[in-house]
User: What shape does this take?
Amino acid sequence: MRVATLDDLVAASAAERRFALIVFEAFALAALVLAGAGIYGVLAGSVAERTREIGVRSALGASRGSILALVARQGMMLIGLGVAIGLGGAVAASQAVAAMLFGVSRLDPVTYVGVVALLAVVSVIACGVPAWRAVRVDPASTLRAE
Assistant: This one.
């Protein structure tokens, strides 16, 4: 016969769920970092390919704000598409994790809004660096390059 305290029994029953949630957190953090790096990589590549176009636009009188908006708009379209697909996948997959949720419904709007807000912050930072590089393109050196 085994003797255990109530605290030991509660800890043992919660250990499996706690481990699963820690694994989910680790994967979520890795996904967030990969999403930010991916957005940055795509936009940095796009800015590098379009350096001549950006230089011509700047030489023809485009303001820094319009160039910034051009790059940011491209990034935000990618982000919007990714968020829409991700929300659909999250709603579909939420049934699988519903057993691990306590006091929160599987379609909790506060959670979804919080996650989208976090992704938006990371995405704006990831879009900002290539957009700032695009704004700093020197039109004279770009036009002389070819």
